[in-house]
Design brief:
The chain folds into 2 domains: 3-39; 44-85. It is 44% helix and 18% strand. It has 1 helix and 3 strands; from the N terminus they run E-E-E-H. A hairpin with a 5-residue loop joins strand 1 (3-8) and strand 2.
Length: 85
């Protein structure tokens, strides 16, 4: 698949886009500019360090999600407690 990385010269947003011959040139999804710089593609690699970093990030996201869920549950319980009294 012709997937390329781009850097928008107008706003600095970095993104990837699928570029096929029959499609019009890509534009920045952030600002709509066509003034783009095509960046060298980065290859996906898997090292013990990258796997550890990904696992740490996943744990942080899960903890944040659990914290939000617990806070929502506590607010809901407080609302029900107040309604009951």
């Amino acid at each position: 698949m012709p997937l390329f990385d781009f850097d928008c010269r107008a706003c600095g947003h970095r993104f990837e886009a699928l570029v096929r011959r029959q499609d019009p040139p890509p534009v920045c999804p952030s600002c709509g500019s066509a003034d783009l710089e095509r960046l060298p593609s980065q290859f996906a690699t898997s090292t013990p360090e990258s796997r550890q970093a990904a696992a740490t990030q996943a744990r942080k996201k899960a903890a944040a999600r659990a914290h939000r869920d617990n806070a929502a549950t506590a607010r809901e319980e407080e609302t029900h407690r107040r309604e009951d009294h």
